Amino acid sequence: MRRGVRIGVDVGSVRVGVARCDADGILATPVRTVSRDRARPGADVREIADIVREQEALEVLVGLPRSLSGRNGPAAGTARGYAHQLAAAVAPVPVRLVDERLTTVSAHQALHASGRSGRKHRQVVDQVAAVMILEQALEIERRTGNPAGETVRGTETT
pLDDT of 20-54, one tens digit each? Predict the structure, then answer.
């Protein structure tokens, strides 16, 4: 297993959840929820890029929401585009897309099981989903010895 902090990202249309793990890849924890403000395009990508630099991250893992059949739908296209923007902003730090089927559903279930009311889920569900994306990627790397997901190339589009 490679040593280094990794950043997990759950891309939503309104918010982006961000999580990190320790350098040994043992514990994933929430960092923050970043707002996607249409009045300030690209501000969210820059904020996440700042987190990546502050944490001296080894890589960024962006969730790719596929359908249960494994197909890419509109949300997957959005996540893929976001990952390309993020890759341009954090280069040379690699960005990888990781299958995240059902992480948001699982995050809601975990929050409900913890006793948190439904209305309060929105405040943290994206962070919990980012933690789950990161944990899944770490488990894949531990099991296979290879980084999870597919590498994304950056674009200049913001």
Answer: 999 999 999 999 999 998 888 899 999 999 999 99
Q: Which of 147, 154, 155, 129 is nearest to 30 (CA)?
A: 129
Instruction: List phi, psi (to 5°) of 12.
Output: -120, 170
Sign of the torsion angle spanned by Cα atoms 69, 70, 71, 74: positive
Taking the CA of residue 135 as centre, how many other CA atoms within 13 Å lie in the half-sphere pointing to its CB?
A: 13
Residue keyed to tokens 């990161």: 134
Name the phi and psi angles at 109, rounded to 5. Answer: -65, -40
- Cα dihedral: 83, 101, 61, 84 (round 10): -10
Strands 150-152 and 95-99: antiparallel
Question: What residue type is 14 in one-letter code?
Answer: V
Distance CA 61, CA 66 (A): 15
pTM of the model: 0.84
